[in-house]
Every structure is written in structure tokens, then in C-alpha cells.
Write the C-alpha cells for this entry.
Amino acid sequence: MLKKLSLALTRPSDFGPRMQVSSCYITCKGRLLLLQNAPCKRFSGSYGVPAGKLEPLETPLAAVLRETFEETGLLIDSRELHYHTTFFVHYYDLDFIYYVFVLELDTPPKHISLRPKEHSTHLWVSPQEALFLPLMPLAKECLLHIYGEDLIF
């Protein structure tokens, strides 16, 4: 049976993860870094945070450091990175574990280095503004959980 799209903080009884993903919610002065998927990528034109699959034997922390560097060129000091939460994601016929890390920068990076085959551009927006952009599936739900008390309408 095809499962629906859902996000949970506790492991569902029918959950069978086939992969794990680490993500990095990077903010600077209240602005969140979002990357726009390149035209050749799945979910073309949609925005999301730096994220990617864990490699075999890789920890969630090692994966988020690697993926953030690969997708943005930013070298992050792991001591500045904070684990936030883990989501259990049903994405139709795929279950996966989604680790959320957050990083607050004091000064904006001088340069974000994107891979053109993966991302076409980047934006710094408030988490509230992000809710009105075309986002990756379940990204809105993640933003509401992570920044909920700060999202005033």
C-alpha cells in the first residue's frame, strides 16, 4: 500500500527507513539560507536547505558537514553546529530518517559556491518569507517545527 506524505517526531509503527538524510538550517541575522534546485534536478525550481543522504558508515554529523560543504562551499566548525531534531518521514513509498542541524552565523559568508548541476541560485530570507516560496516537499512543515514560535503572521 502506498503511504502518504508525512513527517513525525516519533517513529511510526509501520516505518521502514531505506535511507538517512542530514540537513543544515543556516541562519545569519534572522535570514535563512535556501538553495534553489537546478532545472535538471528533481523538484526543479523548489527551495530547500543544504541536505543529503548519509554514506555507508557515515554519522549524521559527518554527513551534514560534508553535504553543506559540497552544496555551498562553506566549511563549518562542528562545535558551532547544533543538533535540533530527527524526523521520521513517509514520502509515498519511501521512508527515511531526516536529521536536522542548525547553525547561526554572526556574519554572512562572503561567497556561496553552488554546483550548477545541483542548484541554480541561493537566497537569504526570513523563515517566515520562506513559507511563501516554492519549497521542497515537507519543507514548510520542517520550518514550522524549527522556527514555529518565531513565525508571526
About this structure: The longest strand covers residues 94-105. The chain has a mean pLDDT of 92. The first helix runs from residue 60 to 72.
